[in-house]
Each structure stands twice: as C-alpha cells, then as structure tokens.
Structures
1.
Amino acid sequence: MTPENMPFTEWGLMNLSDGPDKILLEPYRFTCTALRFLFPFVSDVLRLLNFPRWIGARPALKEAADTTIAFAQSQNNIEFDVSYPQLLERLSLPWE
Amino acid sequence: MGVYMAINIRETIDTRGLIPVFGYPQLRAELPRVRVTLHTDNLAQAQGEDALARDWLVAMGKHVGIRETRPTFDLLVTPARSSQGTAWSSPHALATYDVEHIPISLQRFYGLSLNPNWEEMRDPNEPSAPLVDAKIHQALERHLFVTLDQSVLNLALNPRPEGNVFVLTPHEAQHYIDLCLKAHEKYHIRTNYTANRSVYYWQRLWNLVPAFQAAWPYTVYGAADSLPDSAPIMDFMQALYARLIGQMQACDRIGWLRYGIPTSDARDEMLNQLNYFFMLATGVFDSLAWLAYHRFGFRISSPQGVTLRAERRSGRENPLFRQLDTAAPDLASFFRDRQQQERIGLFYAPRDAIQHRLVLTGAHFNSGQAISL
C-alpha cells in the first residue's frame, strides 16, 4: 500500500507510467526493507529446521552444544546504541 | 559442488604455516571532522526516540576515544533562550557560538534574538531566532544542523542562493553520524565501546537473527562429531552468515553514499553495491534451501530443484517443498505461503535480470538518487 504522498512503496519501488516493466528502485529504502524482511525470515527458517532434533540423536553431543549455547547467549547480549536497519527519514519529492 | 577457500599469501609464511601479522604499513583512515550544531531550545523538548538520539549525539560529541585527541565530531549548541533550553543544556556544559566568529552581518540579529521575547518583539520581516541560529551555523561552515523545528527542517529542501543547509532531526542525525563513522572504519556498538568491522557485523547478526545463536553451535558440534550431512550443513551455515553480513555492509555503504553528492562515481559504486546485494539475497535463499535439503537428508536429482522459489515450469512441483511436506510440514507451509513467495520473488526478478540479461542502471532525482531496472 503506497500512501498518496509517498510515491515509493515501503520497499522503495515505483512503477513508471511509460512502461509496465520499468521500475524505479530507491536503493537504500529497498536494502533496509529487504534486511528487515530477511532477518526474521532467516530466523524463522532456522527455528523450523529444528537442529536440536537433528543433534538429539546423540544426547551427549546435544548436552554439550546446549551448554555452549547458554554460555554464548550470556556473553552475547550486547545492546547496540543505534538500531539496525534504520527506518528512513521523510521523503520529499517535487510533485508532493 | 566445490568448496573454494580464498587465501591471501604475501611473500612469506612463517614456520607455523601462518601469514605474518607484522611488516605492514600502519595506515589509519582519517575521520572527517563533522561539525554538528544542536538546536538547544527545540531539542530540550524532544521526546521518545528523538530524545534518546539527542542524548547519544551529545555523548558522542563529548566522547574521546582511545588513541584519539579530540571528540568523535565537533559539537556546538545554539544559545539557550528558554528556561527549558537552559535547564537541558547547562549540565552538559556544551560550547555555543563564539560571538567573535559570527559574521558582522548577522551579529545585530544574533544579539537581538538572544532576548527571550524576541519572537513577540520582532518585525515580521526580521528573522526568527531559529532562523538566525541556522544562518550563523551556515556562515560558520558547519555541516549538520539538528532540530525538530519544521520551519528549519524545510530549509534543507529549498535551494538557496547562499547554499543549502543540511538539517536533520535527532533520530536522522544519529543515523547519519553512525553511517559516517562506519564509512570511516569506526564501528561503535555503544558510545564508549567500539569493535572492528568483523566483530561489529557478527554481533549485529547475532542480535538480529536470534535463532542463529542456537543453530550455529549445533552445526559446529554436529560437524565435529560427523553427524549425517554435517559437513555441507556447516558449509551452508557459513555461507548464510557471510551473505547476511555482506548484505549489511552493502546496505550501510549504500546508506552512506546516499548522503553524498550524487556524482557519477557515487552512482557507480551504489549500483555495484546494489547488484551485489541482490546476488547475496538470492544466495541467502539458496543457503536456506540447501540447509533444508541436507538437514532432512533429501535426495533431489537436479540441483535446480533445491530452491525456495515455488514457481516452476507448468505442471512441475517444487521437489524440495514436496519432500518437506512429509519431513517438516510447518517449514513447507512457511515456504509455500503466498506472501513469503511474493517477497522471495521480489529478489529473484532483479537478480535474474542482473545475472542473465541487464545490469541495473542509474538515474538521478533532485531529492536523492533512484535506480531504474
């Protein structure tokens, strides 16, 4: 859904009137939105791949991995000051 | 399928077979001196994410890093005229405009505007205090004026004979400074905590893809214990994170170029990064498809069948999805979802054009840059 005052879609895409296959793409808007889609997508797929079940065939191995995961998660809970990827600023175009 | 490993060999490898880490010129990238002016009276009222960003700008503007002799950027604040502005700025003890350096043509209005009642007193033809501040900022050749005042933000959009003013909100300014620092090899996780590029993006990935934190050790342990298909699973996990990190780096580079003067050089580099971004994006889908293939021990006759794209030649079903229907129905449903397929398709159309037909080409807009396919 493209608001009237926002010619580009959330993905930074805009169809041109002079040809159905001509598309304008705003690179930064596209790449930021793409990453905002890709991160949860990848996370969901990795979760659904269910690696604990794969390694669960060897319980001792899974236990060792779980210990490592718990330790890694306790060490890697660093919060960044600046969020990522950023939402973009207002877009002003001549025809607005 | 081959696994290629790149190695950079200079002249010598030490007795342990390692590349020496000494004997390189110690060159350091020079961080440009960004001159930032905060609009005190206006920003004293900032709330939410803009207040957080304002405080981050102040902290960064005062922070002197290890082996540095001055703060990360040059920070000034406009003089406080309101009690709110005074209450906010006084504890920070930040420098304001030096009267001696203000051009004579602006000194009279500057003096008058310091009166807290200037807005009520002034003639409609005389400039408002925020406008006086912005004009002085510009006359002092400072780079970035930060405010939430819409009348000043609008200055950035109008071509002016004396040159444009670069004005951003605190949240946008934080983003700009962060991109600037990264473009010059300063990777701040927190104000006083930096990392090298590799650690910075790894940590970003670790935070942004929480399931990766768990999946990664399983694949490492699985590979160490030679679980079935563990070697290719490990390879595709490595490919997955390398591609995601490459995408983050490309996105940051494109973001930084976006704020630069739109020259043909900037356009060329942005297009290179964008072309690369598309290839990495579809590579991420390929990595996930192959992870699913090896995780569940599938056998598919053609490698072209190992894809997350549902669309096949008419009458053909995606063989990966068909096998997933039995082995992991939740994952099969997730991939088949129409909205997911629309988004996956959004990457493949330009990727196919780049790889097989045309590269992306560039176009300029007055208000930024746009790329046409």
Note: Chain B has a mean pLDDT of 88.
2.
Amino acid sequence: MSFFRRQWTAHEADEWTKEDFWACVFSSLSYILMMIGLALLFLLPVWGLIIFAAGLLCVWLMYRAIDPKLKTVSADYEVKQKAYLKELDRIMKWEDK
Amino acid sequence: MQIQPSVIFTFWDWLWLILYISVMIFSGILFYRLGKRSESDFFLAGRGLPWWLPASSVYATHTATDTPMWMSGVVYQHGLAGMWYSFFAAWCAVSAFVSTRIFRRSLAYSQAEWQTLRFSGLGSELLRGWMAGWQVFMNMMILGWVGMAMGKVCHYAFGWDNWVGLVLFSSICAIYVLAAGYWGVVIADFQQGIVVFLGIFIVSVWGVYEAGGPAGIVGRLQELGETSRLNPFHFSGWFSGDFPAAWFITMLFIALLGGIGMGTSIDWYVEAQRIQSAKTVRDASYSIWGGTALVLTRNSLWAAAILGFYVLYPDIPDVKDYELAWFRIGFEMLPPGMVGFFFAAIVAIHLSTVASILNLGALYATRDLYQHYLNPHASERRLVWVGRFSTVLVLVGSFLYGSMMENITQWLIFALWVMAAGIWLPNILQVIWWRFNSWGYLSSWIANLGLSWLVVWILPAQGLLPDLPDYAQFWLLMGLGILIYVPVTFLTKPDDMDHLVRYYVQSRPLGFWGPVRREAERQGLIKAVTEGVEAELGR
C-alpha cells in the first residue's frame, strides 16, 4: 500500500491531510536543492549535479503526494464554480444584503 | 570605478530590438477582441488559463529590471550565500498547496475583494477600500522603482537621462495593456518569459566562460582566499557580522510559514490575480509552484555569473557599481550583434513587470473602488473602459513616483519589511483562525504602518532605539503588533456566523475553524467526516 493515498472521494479530498503536509515539505526542499544545485552546476559540477538531482527527486515526491488529491478537489469544485460565480456577482451588485 | 556610458549598437542589435518590441505590441492588438469582452477577460483572461500560462507570467513578472541589480549586489557581497536574500519567493512552496487553493476557491478577483468574502460588516468594507487604495498606490510605487531601474540601465548603456528610460519603455508597454488587458499581459509574458530565460542563460553562461569556466572561477577564488563564497551556508556568525545565521533562520521562517497566509509577501497580490486566472484549482496550484521554481533557478544562473564577475573584478567598493555586474557582463563581454539580443532581453524583463503591475493596479481601481463603491451595476463595456482609464492613471502616477526615487535598494528593503513584519502574522491568522475579525486585521495594518516607521526610521534617528539588524526588526515589529491586534480582536464582536459559514463551505480553509464547521454541519451544508465517507462509499 502506498504511503500517499492515490484514490480520493470528493468529500475526503476537501479535508486537510498528511498529503498536503508532505507536499509542502517536498516542495520547500525541492526549491532549496534546485536553487543551490543549479548554481553549483556552473562552479562545482559534480556536487551541483548531485544536489540538483536530489531537488528533482523532491519534485517527483511532491507530485506523487499531492496530484491525485488536487485532481479530485479540482474536479469537484469546478462543478460548483458556476453557482459560486453567480453568487459573487450578486454580492458585487449589493443584492445579497 | 567609473562607468563608461557607451554601448555601440550595430544594425543587427537594432533589428533584434525593433523586432522584439513590434512582436509585443502586435500580440496586444491580436488579443484586443478577447480583452474587451468583459471585466473578467480584461483582468483575469476569463478564468480559463492552463497552468503554464500564469506560471510563465509569475516568472516573467518577478524578473524585473531591478532584480538582477539586487541579485548582483547581494551575491557580489556575500557569494552564493547571498542567494538566500531572494529565497523569500519560496513562500510559494507552501502557498501553492495551502493559501493558493483556499484563495482560488473563493473566486475573489483581488485580495481586497477576498476581505469582504472572509470578513463581514463595516470592518470588511473599510478593509476593502483601504487595501484597494493602498494597492493602487503601491503599484504606482513599484512601477516607479522598476522604471527608474530601467532608467539607470539606459543611462549606463546609452548615456540617456534616467527619466527617458523610465517613460519610454513603460509607455510602449501600456499600448498592449490598454488594448488587451490581462490577455495581452499573459500572452506577452509567455513570450517575454522565453526571451528572458534565454537571455539570462546565455549571458550567465558567457559570464562564467569569460571568467575561466568553473575551474577558473574556483581557482581564482582560492588565490583570493575567498573559497567561502562557494558555500551557500557561509554566515558571519550566529548573531554577529553583516550576514548572521539568525537572519537566515528568520528568512526561512518568514518565507515558508508565510505560504499559509495571504499577503505575507508583497508578491502575493500579483500572484492572486494569476491564481484566479487559472482554469482549475489544480492549475492554480501548479502555476504558482512552477512560476516560482523558475524564479529561483533563474537566481542560480545569475549567482554563478556574478561569482564569475567577482573573480574578474574583485575590488569594486561601491554598491552602485557592482550592482550593475550582470548588465556589465552582457554589455561588455557579449560579441557584437548579440548586444541587441541582450538589450531585447532587458526590455522583456522590464515590459513583463510593467505590464503586470499596470493591469493589477487598474484591477484594484476598477473592481474594488469604481465598481464596488461607485457603480455596482456598471455594464461590462463600461468596466473595460474604466480599466483602461485606470491603467493610464497608474502609468502617470508611476512616472511621478519614479522621479522621486534615488536609491532603489533602500526603498525595496523598506517596502519589503513594511509588508513582511507587523502584518505577517495577521495575514496568516486571517486564513487559519475563525475568530480573527476585520477589526483585528484592520488594526494590525494601522499599527504596522506607524510601528514600522518608528522602529526602522524615527526612533533610531532620535537615538531612542539602537540600529537593529533587519531580522531583529522583524521580531520586534511582530511582537509589538500582537500587543495591539489581539486585544482589539477580543474586544470586538466575531464576524457574522452565516457569513463565515458561507465562506467556509466554499473555500474550506485549514486551521482553527471548529465553531464554523460545526455550524455548517448543523445547517447540513457539509457532512461530518465519517458521515461523508459513508455516503460516498454508499454512492
């Protein structure tokens, strides 16, 4: 069984879970490693390559953690979006108060 | 060291430049019909963009004319560790999966509009008006300082007066922003993003090559006794020196935790527009993440080139000279015929920022001031025209502010601290804590404006407070702010519960929303966790 959940119902995906936390962790690590790694690629190429590759690995882990959940959140939300936009328009015209 | 204002343009250099500017203006005319369809098109491209378009816009917008100056300054001074100054952008690492999702679901056109969706009553209206007015002002100021940076580059390259570079290129940019609004911005940003990335890559690789390649730079640093410049974690001590580890830890804290909130970075307001222009929640998340990944890796290219410049010219004492390092690599080291391409990349860097800021300032003036307070029933056609008029207003304002700014770095640092310090925590609290109300948030803004001037300028000038390092200013401003907005929050009523429930059900924020969630469950608007799972499985 995968550490990161692959199947989500719309209701479950609306909750904040460990997948969100780990996506943030891997995302932050990937930024740090890619930034340092790419700069070092031009100066100390071996170290640069190792660090940059570690950054790319973090990107992949981030994607694995969050993408199935994001897809479900998106699909469910887009169904409701039209009604929400109408509501926003009513609020903008001061018609909801 | 004296700067020689003499860059020789050949026929091919002028051709690159004229072709490039023509393509930009043409793209504006091409999307004119889409931009004028509605307010949503003029400011959000109809909310229908795939993730890579707003991502390229995030990247292009945050690559401004003053950015390579800023990066050159900090990397020349501190070596690779100087890259951390630009790591504030990493708030997007967390925001992409937290505040971006929450904000996208709110569907607010702007952060000012979000205030009235999150908060209720008079306080929320005051917040919206204040934030919209402040954003119009801030966008004029930002345009002023990036415009002046362009003025300085043109002065260095061609010997023009600073105001010529400021007025000329911002005005060219305004043509396609006026014609096509955000459509023009985002399509031009995509092209500019490619030109900018190519330009930065070519110039930086060329700079490393001219400095002797990787081995040459490392060898020269060893000769100079400066190998610590290759260490991204080289600090001057825990609390001492000009680059202490305490600053680094504070920066990581601000940047990464700041991604939970909205407005914790000055860049949020630009990103907010890109988030809403993405066609889905998923596209919004990836656009913010991808655009920022490009921003940070771009900084790496600059940093390598600036280290190359450092080993060639290690003894430049004046910041005004070495902050032009990357521009000097391009103008002085590239072969003839490529200088025009380099200048086209600089123009791309400049136009992409100017276009975004012009349209963003106009968005706040149109949606949050004109439509919300003056003419809620305005037709779509009228709103587009008000958007165009506001664009001109922001442009003219930027010329006035630009002409008043002498020292870019000083303004930039102050603006970043004003934005980051006293309202950093309130910007998170408004997202994660249901009880934090509009009066608490409003009081944090007012307190921060006063406190930041006191702590940064007035008290040190009067000798009543020592000159604190900026990371210490951050903690002091945060602590002083808490003493004001927390009591104000508890002494005033919570926001209207029905309003909070409506916001919660639509946006599903994280954090401390227990009473609101229970009320939403009681009203049957959302299901309890276990109940929901059972229902989904049953279905």
Note: Residues 16-92 of chain A form one domain.
3.
Amino acid sequence: MTTHAVEAWIEAPLARFVEDARVTLALLLLPSGQVLAQHGFTRSLDVASACALAAAIQASGGELGRMLDGRAFTGLHHAGQDRQLFLAEARTRRGTYIFLTVFDQESSLGLVRLYFDEFVANLAAAAPEGDVAVDGVLAEHFERDLNRNLAALFGRA
Amino acid sequence: MSSPFQAMLGSLMRLRGVSATLLVDEHEGMIIDSMLQFGQDGARVAALAASLHRKARKSAEAAGLGEVAFMELEAADGRICAAGRHDLVVVAVTSSSANIGLVRVELLKAARGLA
C-alpha cells in the first residue's frame, strides 16, 4: 500500500506517520473537503466520500465546541468494533488541514496520538514558505480542484 | 484528584531507582493513572510500553508459551518493566542501578491486585 500526495512536501511526513503508527488508512484534506494526500484507499470515490464526511464532522465538532466550551473541538476519536477512527486538525504556516486516520488492533489510540503530534511537527517543518491560499477555496473552483486532486492521487492526472 | 491506583503506584515509586510508574490501558495505550518525575513524557512511555506489552503477549501466545507475566526492556541508561492483567498494564521506568528483582516482585504483586 503506498502513500500519495498532491503536493510532494506532504508525502514524507505522511508516509512516516503511517509506518510508525501502523494505521491502515490516512487522509489529509483541506477544511473545504479537498483531498491533499492519502494512504490505503484504492478508489477515488471512497476518498471523496471520506473527505466530505471528515470535513463535515470537523465543522460540526468545531461548532459544537464553540457552543459548549467557547472554542472549537480540534480532535475526535471514534472506536468501532474492529477499527477506530481519529480525526484532528493539523496546523502549519500554510494553513489548517484536517487529518483523518483509521487503525485496527495493530495500533492504539495512544500510539496514533503520539505519532500524530510528530506528524504535525514534521508537516509544519516540511511546509514550504509562500502564501498559498489553501484555506481560501472559491466555490466555483471547488469541484474542478477536487477532481484534479483525486486524479493526481489515483494516477489519472 | 486521588484515584484507587495511587497507593499501588506510590509504593512502586518508593523503590530505589524507579523514576516513573504508570497504569496503562493495553488496548488503547492510554494512561489511566501515573506518577512521574517532572519533565517525563508519560503519554509517550504509556503508548509505547502498552504496544510492547501487547506485542510480547501476542508473541508468547503464538509460541504457545501462555500469558506474559513480566516484561523487561533493558536499555543503555535504564529499564522499562511491565506486568499486566486483563487489559491493564503496570509499567515502571527504572535506572540501571535499580534492584530489578525487587521491582519484578512488586510489579507482579501490583498486577495481581488489579481488578
């Protein structure tokens, strides 16, 4: 299973996280739901769905946190019977990203959280200088950019 | 806030050469309770020690050796010792000069006392 990223600087930190934390799936996306990197997915449709859901969950969690605690909740863990999900914000100088990962009994929440902190630090260190407007996605470009990123990740660019 | 495990962790901490004691959920790798010296990263130790214990338990099962009673990792400057029961693992971080025999006995006793 390989790791693919739309922007090359993301690939090494993500691949290292996947190897260290022993997760089965990983996604890095913009708060708008556009995918930037993925590991473990075999179909672009699954990536698009997971990104849309992750962005919606993060937005809901953020708003719920602001209502209850005065500030956005930045992470979420959901334990299923066999697999678990961890969703959190990753901040770099290029902007804020959403990170979603799925793991099974080969890993644990403690390991995922531990290596997530390292991943964010590595991502922040690898982020190139420059004012790339990753947060400012225009609605009219959304679908075009979404499809372009999916095509890049699944070798149809 | 005091937890039901503070007395058990405290008695382990009083052993010579023990610098940290933790009660960890083996499945989640998360700290349930701990006693740490200032500056120690308990979350990191807990996640990695739980992972080691889980893998040791699986290895022992695969080899037909039964349950893991005690696990000891020896490094250049000290040891990580762990004993588990059910899904819980008691972990002690010690210096090289610690009396490992005594740490082993006390860890096994602590693990037997877990509900």
Note: The radius of gyration of chain A is 15 Å.
4.
Amino acid sequence: MNKKLSGLSAVLLNLLVLCIGVAHAQCKLGVPVIKVGVQGAASGPHSDYGRQIEMGSTMATEEINAAGGILGCKVEIRFMDDENRAATGVRNARLLVTDWGAHFLVGTDSSGVAMALGPVLAELKRIQFFTHAATHRLTEELVAQKGIHEIVRVSVPVYQDAIIAALIFKDRKDVRRWATIGADYEYGYVSWNLFKETLKKYRPDVEFVGEAWAPFLTLDFAPHISAVMAQKPDAIFATPWAGEAVQLLRQALIQGVFDNVQVWWQAMGGSVDVLEGIAGEVQKDRFKGKLWATARYIHNWPDTPENKAFIERFTKRWKRYPNYSAETTYSAFFIMKAAVEKAGSLETTKVIDALKGMQIRNPGGVRTFRAEDQQFIYNVPAGRPMMDPKYPIPVLGDLKVFPAKDYYRYPPFTPVSSGK
Amino acid sequence: MIDNIVFQGCVGLSLAMYLWLISAGLTIIFGVLRIVNFAHGSLFMVGTYLAYTFYGQLALPFGLAIALSVAGTGLLGFVMERGFLKRLYGVDEAYQLLLTFGFILILDDAVKAIWGGVFKIPPIPDFLDGALTVAGRPFPVYNVFVIAVGVLVAIVLWFVFEKTWWGRIVRAIAADREMASAMGIRVPRVFSGVFVAGAMLAGLGGAIGSPVRVAAPGIGTAMIIQAFIITVIGGLGNLKGAFVSSLLVGILSAYGTLFFPVFELFFIFVIMAVVLLVRPQGLFAR
C-alpha cells in the first residue's frame, strides 16, 4: 500500500517537475514570473481612483496572460494601498521591490507621493509607469533635469488641467476676470500657475482676481466659494477632484454661482465618478452649459475599435465604466509588454532603451514616447458634461479636440512656480 | 466690502453649526464619561451614509430619513458603549484611546465594504433648494436650514441640562461620580444614555450634511480633528464652551478664507494656539 502510494507520488512529482520545467522553458526571460507592483489610493475619500488602478491592472494582466504572457512569461501583480501618503508610497515601493521582488512598478495617484517616489526608484533601479499623478515636475524636473530615468509617465500631466483650459477660453472675450478654487497642494498650485502663465500670453487683458485653497478632506467649500465670488469673477478655475469636485459644484449651485459666472472649469470633472455624482444636476441643466471639464482619458473618445472593445470588455468585467486611471494603468501594462518584448530583457536600462521611439495604439488613442522627459504623449479632449442617449451617465460633449503638440510643454522646460 | 463681510460671516455661521453638532456630542461624552472618543468622527460619517441610504436610495421623506439616521447612529453608539467601552471604564485611559482608534479603522473599512469606495451624495430636497438674498448675494436656503438645526439643538441641550431632572442627574454624575452612585443613581445606565445621545448628535451632524457634503470613507477623520480643536478651545467637557468656540472657529476660518487665502490650512491651528497661550484650560473651563 505504502509502496504503491509512494510510487504514485513519485510519478506525480515527476510530472510536476516536468510541468515547471516546461513553464520555465517557455519563459524566455529566465524568471518564473514577471512581477509588477501596483500602487494607488485605496482608502479614504479618493479610494475609487486606487480601485480603478487595480481594475485596470487586473484586467490587463488577465488579458496578457491569456494570450501567452510576455515572451512566454506569466505576469503577476500585487496591489498595495498608498493611502495617498508619500511615506506609505515609498515604504510600499521598497517592500514590493526588495521583499516581493517586483520587476516593475505601476500606478500612483498623488503628485506628492510621486515626487517622493522618484529618487527612491533610482535607488531601487526599477521603472515605475506613473498612471495618474499629474504634476509636471515629475517628468520635467525629475526626469529631464535630474535624469531619473526610472520614471515613465503614461498619463497626461497638468498640461491637460491647465493649458488646454487656457486654449479654450482665450477666445472668450466676455471672460476677463478669473478666480481659482484650488486644491491646496502641489497639483492645485501648479495647475493654476500654468493656467495663468498660458492665458496671459494670449490675453494680456485678463485679470486673476481671487483665490481660495481647499486642503484634502474639505467638507465645506461654502467659505471658498463665497470668498472668490466676493471678487465678482467671470470664471472659476477649480481643481478639487473626485467627491470634492461634486461637493464643490453642488455647493456652488446653491450659492447661485452659475447665475453669476460665465464659465466654470472643473479640471478633472470628466472623471466617471464626478459625472455620476452630478448626473441629476446635468439632467436638469442646472449648470446652464457653463460647466467645462476634461480628464486624462474619457470613455466616449476616441471613436476607435480599440476603445470600443476596451469599454465593452471593461464594463463586462467590472460592471462599471473605466475611469481615466483604469485606462492609463491598463495601457501601461501593454506599454511595458511591448518594451520588454523589444528589449528581450527585464533590465531597467534595456527596457528604457526599448521605450525610445515607441508609438503604441491604446484605448485612449496613440501614445508616443518622448525621450527627454519620458512622458507619453497623447491627446484628450475637453468638453461640457451633458446627457447622451448612448450612455446611462453624463459624458463630456461639445468636445474641443487639440492636438497634443499644441498643449504639451516641450523641452527645454522653463520652470513654473509650484507654490501658491 | 461690508456686504462681503456680512455674507462671509453668514457662511461661517453655517460652517460653525456643523462643527457645533459634532463637538457637542464629543464634549458631552467627555464631560460625563471622561472618555475621549476618537471614533466620534466615524459616527458622524455613519450618520452621513445612513442618510444617503434612507433618503438617497430608499427615497424616504428627508425629515424621516434624518430621524432614522440619527436613531441608527444612536444604536451603533449603544452597541459601542454597552459592548466595548463599558469594560474599560476602570482601566488606564490609553486603552480607551486604542479601542476608539480601532473603531475608526473598523468603521472606515465597514462603510467601504457596505457602500463601496465611491463617494455617495443624494440630491438636495426640493424644499431646501434655492437661495435667499443676504447682503445682496444669493445665500443658500440649505445653509439657513443647517443654522436653524444647530441653534435648535443648542436650545434643546441647554433646556435638558439646565431645566430637567435628567439633566440634573447627568450634571451630578459629571461633578462627582461616586457621590451620585451613593445617592442611588444608576451610573452605568446614565453613561449609556449619554453616550447614545452624543452618538445621535454626531449622526445628526452627518445626516443633515449629506446632500451637500459627500459621504466618503475617511470623512470622519477630517471631522474629528476639528472637533477636538473646538473642544480644546472651549474647555474640555464644557458645552457652552463648545458652542462658543464652534462659532469662533467657523466664523473666523471663513474670514480667513476671504482675507488670507494662502493661510487657510493653518488658520484653525492659529486660533487654537492663541487660546492655549492665553487660557490653557480653554475659554470656558472653570
């Protein structure tokens, strides 16, 4: 009996060894599996952004593995919550690379976390594909000036939040007095400064008449709204995002702001969660067509087979529409795949070399790698939230499409103030 | 200019009322039970979520939804006090801090498990939508409603504590727990009642804010810091102090946003620092 059993287990063991051997033989990179550490804000009021990063990375991994992996190697991900805090993000990155053995890192929502991660990536010698953090300084300063080549950004930075707004509203002669209700941290400051700098070039006559800054976790924007409205602005430039954007807009509505301003720019108002949050107001046209917004990807643009198929798979897999952090993260995995396949290696320097000259078709459109600051270039339109019979939630319509070359900043980069 | 100052003051007043509702409960609980309830902000958060469910999802009338949310938060407070806190009255205060801090983490994850990570915001009830004119500018009816609720709660609390038998018992326990017990007052029962009342106030603060302030995991933590600052300024355990310092912090921070936008983040701490320097025991502490 015992003999029989041990004989059987020997056979099984051999089979197992054989299987592992085959798996190894299939992976041309000499590793059991390619490990990718993923990070995002998965707790607190912005936790849906981390969740979207997790959904995007999970779906990309499933699809890549189902199609045979990367050079025959399976991909494995491990998602960690950075709590939107720099210290946690840095600790996670170290843990993911040194303990878990991550070959690549992907994600990060907050600019503050991203700026703290940059130098650590150089030390860990691992590439991170950033998929949400938006401060231009990540790529302009840390990559182009300081030469930290472990930073690659797949998502569009504050050029989207600030410069595209200036381009849209420069022709509005009726809008002369601008005020900001800004996010009281790096992202809010650089967006407002970049916006002012760009708009002033086209319109020397505009005035910037007021500012109010709201820290993370602001529950009441009423004092901010009334403070800037005291200056009688024609337009508001607003950068709070996620739930805070919805709160801000609703509190602005009940203060009658949309009767008194001509334009309200809610930079990341094209985000799916925000559009869902303001659906009732959009249906009733409470914003009177004065609300404008953009995002780092919107699911109703571009009208390509890739995007349509992505939306179909995503909504089927998760029963929700993908937010921009889902698309940028999903696409980051396919960028990583293409680079590793071209490099034939997981070595950081070889993969970075392989990125040079890359042009890749993603759901969000064609992304082109820019070597100087390792920023992927693609364009996203801006528009006004409205109902569309094709979708159950509001989408951006009346789209203003600018080619990326018109609104991205180009090297050599001139510094933009990052303070208030 | 005068118009703007008046208007901003009114905005500050509504801000103050949210602060008052949350710090009132915190103060009562501390004053009587001598417990620093870190999870008080989380009760506020639960109140907001319950209001979203009752009003936003089940479409109950707004007033009823608020009442149910307040009751629900009170029930949660009852479970917290009877099931957990009760066991820690005799031991070192550090254990209470640990326990209530644990509740923050548990409740944050619980709301995420129940309601998901995406923030929730129900529509504004029709009868509270719209604006009045204050100092020549539109002032939201909703904020008037919040001010009214805050003032009403202040009056009710004053009446209960000063004019009723129940209030006298509570004050007796706050003054001398042992003596009250010797006089035949059932202290543990009063403790439960006070904790539940404090929880209900937090729930009320959360619930009335739900249509204009989102329900999201983590909003409790944002509130608890402000509430602590207010109770410290007003004098720990002092209800009148909590009311006055809510007004002070709410109105001054609204003016801070108007006149010194760059210092927004520090303003509330500056107020606290000044008070602590001048009157370390708080404005109204005896």
Note: DSSP finds 16 helices and 15 strands in chain A.
